[in-house]
Amino acid sequence: MSPQRRRLLLGTVLLGSSALPAVAALQSVAALQSVAIQVWKDPNCGCCKDWIVHLQQNGFTASVIDQGNGAMRSRLGMPQKHGSCHTALVQGYVIEGHVPAADIRRLLKEKPKALGLAVPGMPIGSPGMDGPAYGGQRDPYKVLLIQKDGSVEVFNSYS
């Protein structure tokens, strides 16, 4: 967020006539702050690039490592059976595949004791797999919460 935008929002908070609007405005400022995320991907993968654009449009700042993701996925402990074309790390959580930014934000807010989130494979309609080339097609998919012991539960589902 630019310093001018932050000052404008903070000025709105300070000029508010009650505490409730001020709290809401402060929460809006916090929500707009960028979250750093590291992404490992193949340098030639277009859907990975599109997923990164989705993250950036939703307040994430991505550092991209274009050397593939298989070794990093293994090193970070994400089971291969939940693999996809890119692996990310954000605030200690592993993010595998086309996980929507809103689900990553929810993970960071709730802070479960878990390894991270995964969208196995490359479901059409998920972020990065939703461009014009797919003709509006949408496959149902699940965002999985992967526990450190390898167990899994559904974190969110999309249809």
TrEMBL record:
Q: Which UniProt keywords apply?
A: Plasmid, Signal
Q: Where is the signal peptide?
A: 1-24
The name of this protein is DUF411 domain-containing protein
Top-level taxon of the source organism: Bacteria
Keyword Cell cycle attached? no
